[in-house]
Amino acid sequence: MTILRSCILLMVFLPLLAACGGRSYNGSLQCAPYARKLTGVQLKGQAYTWWYQSQGKYPHTNQPQKGAILVFRKTSKLPYGHVSVVKKVKDSRTIIVDHANWDAQRINHHASIVDVSTRNDWSLVRVWWPPTNKLGSRRYPTYGFIIPGKS
Questions:
Q1: Does domain 3-146 have CATH number 3.90.1720.10?
Q2: What distance in Å separates the CA atoms of residue 131 and residue 47, rounded to the nearest whole number?
Q3: In this model, does residue 20 exceed pLDDT 50?
Q4: Is the whole-model pTM more than 0.85?
């Protein structure tokens, strides 16, 4: 490969990596820096802490809307929680999101998340699992949605 060709490839792919969230503070792709890049929220740290950090800074809701951030609670399977950005509300129980690192070290675009809570309040969800190409069987507790840009 020539030096010129290598430089051209770097010029093309480095901006794409940056646009997709690139690398975070610990060197690997993470959901929180990616969600921050997509939404512009001024929140940092572990994903589950975003719910409390955002109180008084951004509105909270238990109903999804385009551009909102769904905040997952900390669990044994999600020790740092998780955040996803709503791209589309499909119906009262289904949203389409973009998020990073749900499928290790990947950005997932247009992933489905389904509300499985008994009160339809988005407090418990199931998430699309790319390796099996279907909705995952695990149920994950969430706090709700942060609405960026409306402080």
A1: yes
A2: 23
A3: no
A4: no
